[in-house]
Amino acid sequence: MSDLGENQVENNAFTEECHTVLNAVSDALYAIGGKWKLMIIIAMARGNKRFTEIQRQVTGISARVLSSELKELEMNGFIVKKVENGYPVTIEYELLAYSETLEEVVGAMTKWGMQHRAKIKSERSSKVLNNELG
């Protein structure tokens, strides 16, 4: 009977730990998930501050989507929108210090992405070679 009780405690701890991890990943994906947010941050970290500069660097993003993503990044404390009144009005986006907390994430994703691309290319070339030989 005591084994059953210990297993129940272990299962509860495992389940609780699983929920904690899932909630943390869910929170992260809410803040930086999707196709564009990290790419926008990376483009900005490379010196692109104006809307059109960011849109030019982040290939394929529409103006409407970029505008929406910039608002969400601002809401989550990664960037700030700076408006300079004058003629013409200039708008620039600036990364806040909090965006630097993503450095490790971006580094890990970059490394993994390069490995994944190499793996896929290798597998495809192996299949082509096998098809030619077989």
UniProtKB/TrEMBL annotation:
GO terms for molecular function: DNA binding. Residues 18-121 form the HTH hxlR-type domain. It holds the Pfam family HxlR. Keywords: DNA-binding, Transcription, Transcription regulation. Signal peptide: none annotated. The keyword DNA-binding applies. InterPro entries: HTH_HxlR (IPR002577), WH-like_DNA-bd_sf (IPR036388), WH_DNA-bd_sf (IPR036390). Gene3D superfamilies: Winged helix-like DNA-binding domain superfamily/Winged helix DNA-binding domain (1.10.10.10). This is Transcriptional regulator, HxlR family. It comes from Pedobacter xixiisoli.
